[in-house]
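pinging the channel bc i need a second pair of eyes. not urgent but kinda urgent?? the chain im working w is below, pasted from the shared doc
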Amino acid sequence: QVQLVESGGGLVQPGGSLRLSCAASGSSLVVNAMGWYRQAPGKQRELVARLTNNGNTNYADSVKGRFTISRDGAKNTVYLQMNSLKPEDTAVYYCNFGLVFYGTLWGQGTQVTVSS
């Protein structure tokens, strides 16, 4: 069974940086796309960034120029580098993999809190 394990969340001051990681267990995985979503209290889950297997990316307008999604294919890992963090970036962040055979999988979520 394939699982996604996230790491890298935490508390950071405004203007700071964090890098989130999400690793998929298992071998010989065929990935269609990877993504990061977030959900703030009282709000719906929203797409933050997405990376397809041909290298195309798209970002939420609110994070463009500050966040970067990347992958290490050999490790089945996706990253989200978050710079210039703002209090409004505070949320639980979830990774998402679209896999052939396994379908869509979600990570367990990691809390990111931006506060002074």
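so The chain has a mean pLDDT of 95. and The CA atoms of residues 31 and 99 lie 5 Å apart. — does that match what u expected or am i reading it wrong
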